[in-house]
Amino acid sequence: MNGVLNLLKPPGMTSHDAVAFVRRVTGIKRVGHTGTLDPAAAGVLPICIGHATRLVEYLQAGTKEYLAEATFGYETDTLDAVGEVISEGAAAHVTLETVRAANDAFRGTIQQMPPLYSAIKKEGQKLYELARAGADANDLDIQTREVTITRLTVNHFWEATPNSPPRALLGIECSGGTYIRSLVRDIGRALGCGATMTFLVRTRSGSFTLNEAVPLEQIAQDAAGVMLPLLEVLTWCAGQVVINDEAAENLMHGRQVQASISKLVGYQQDPIKSKQRLTQAVYHNKTNPQRVLFLNKAATIAALADPVSPNDTTWYKAEKVFNLGLNE
Q1: Is 2.30.280.20 the CATH number for 64-205?
Q2: How far apart are CA 43 and CA 9, in angstroms?
Q3: How far is CA 115 from the centre of its chain?
Q4: Same fold, 1-62+209-228 and 64-205
Q5: Where are the domains of the chain?
């Protein structure tokens, strides 16, 4: 069994739990996810099985989309609703207009401080483990990381009432590695009142979307039937797909191949049933548009190949080769 499950992770389940669940129901040990999703969050969590685990680095490089609720007026130690309140601030001044204005500073490429309660490792230990042992963020010298926010909108805003603080539903598209909890925290601090993420759903991860995500019960019943085949997912990792028996064979044996870039425009043959889906997938995951997937006509050999030189797209060398004819 080789492919990817677009798992619909429920709230309360860790990404590690999701991997363990897939191992248990499929009986396959070689399983991995393509990007951690917070335990309290729900949504898209692609799970790679078998040879598809070799594609994790490509699949997790795609952009992500989220719907997040920001509740203003307080901040917790975990930056979400399950944590302990560590600060409070008056939020009567927070309106739709002030939130939109604050969001302007967080679009584009920014430096972000990850949460203390996260799986990032510091001297071999995960930060959340150190936090639970009593470590303070100031003592750990957590480094900022560069992330990119390509879309940040206010999809809905709820004004403050006597019984509840103001809230905003944020629509976010961002690079992998972005912490939505940190983004909400920083928006709240920019508004001078604090904010906590009180709801999060990931609606897209690369080319995997929420409307196609599969619940745990369906995976338990028929994992093979709902799994995306390896060949389909392979096409999502390249800028072009080329059918060429000789090139595929040479790449499989470690030889470089020559191909004119003018011949790589478009698809010489579409081995995938849904070309519309293929086009969408390439758009979301094309972190390296020069990468080419070479296939033989029988679709038994697949080679992801990059140009030998970034400035010369004439010769290609294989980065990963898959023998699709073997049922390993």
Answers
A1: no
A2: 5
A3: 18
A4: yes
A5: 1-62+209-228, 64-205, 237-328
Q: Comparing C-alpha atoms, which of 63, 33, 27 is closest to residue 48? A: 33
Does the annotation count 38 as an active-site position? yes
| CATH homologous superfamily, domain 1-62+209-228 | Pseudouridine synthase (3.30.2350.10)
| pTM, full prediction | 0.85
Q: What is the pLDDT of residues 182-233, one digit of tens each?
A: 999 999 999 999 999 999 999 999 889 999 999 999 999 999 999 999 998 9
Nearest to 73 by CA among 162, 154, 166, 168: 166
Q: Which CA distances in Å does 151 have to 3, 53, 87, 155, 281? A: 30, 29, 28, 12, 19
Report the C-alpha gap between 46 and 60 in whole angstroms.
Answer: 9
Question: With bands split at pLDDT 50, 70 and 90, how would you rate the model's confidence at 118?
Answer: low
- Coil, strand, or helix at residue 199? strand
- Whether the per-residue pLDDT at 262 is higher than 60: the answer is no
The span from the CA of 231 to the CA of 209, in Å, is 18
| Ordered DSSP codes for 267-307 | -S---SS-HHHHHHHHHHH-SSTT-EEEE-TTS-EEEEEEE
Question: CB within 8 A of 153, min separation 6: which ones?
Answer: 103, 170, 171, 172
Quote the DSSP letter at residue 116: S
Q: Phi first, then psi: what are they for 310, rounded to 5°?
A: -60, -25
pLDDT of residue 117: 64
The alpha carbon of residue 208 and the mean position of all alpha carbons in its chain are separated, in whole angstroms, by 9
- CB atoms near residue 266 (< 10 Å): 9
The one catalytic residue in 17, 38, 136, 245 is: 38
